[in-house]
Design brief:
The chain has 91 residues and is mainly beta. The chain has one domain. Helix content is 0%, strand content 55%. The protein contains no helices and 7 strands. It has a 7-stranded antiparallel beta sheet, with no helix packed on it. The radius of gyration is 13 Å and the shape is globular. The relative contact order is 0.24.
Length: 91
């Protein structure tokens, strides 16, 4: 089943902002931390949709600083991801 098409609890609305984030790859035995960037393309109370050139996968943890409150750290779990052209769309 394509998890992208599952009905969401909260409606996502279009949103556009660049995003610098760290990917924590906890599934691999060597636990990698990779700094990368992407674009937030939609948002809701319960989640974000992003596009990135980095191959994010379900289970990866993303961390980034709030651009309005620099001391606030955001942490998100990638629930689904799919390759789209030469980028990755994830939520």
């Amino acid at each position: 089943m394509d998890t992208y098409n599952i009905k969401r609890k909260d409606e996502r609305l279009p949103y556009s902002a660049s995003l610098q984030f760290t990917v924590l790859c906890l599934q691999e035995s060597n636990h990698q931390r990779i700094k990368t960037q992407g674009e937030i393309i939609d948002a809701s109370k319960s989640g974000l949709g992003i596009m990135t050139g980095f191959p994010v996968e379900p289970g990866h943890v993303l961390m980034w600083n709030d651009k309005h409150q620099k001391v606030k750290l955001h942490i998100a779990l990638v629930k689904w991801a799919k390759e789209q052209d030469s980028s990755y769309r994830a939520g």
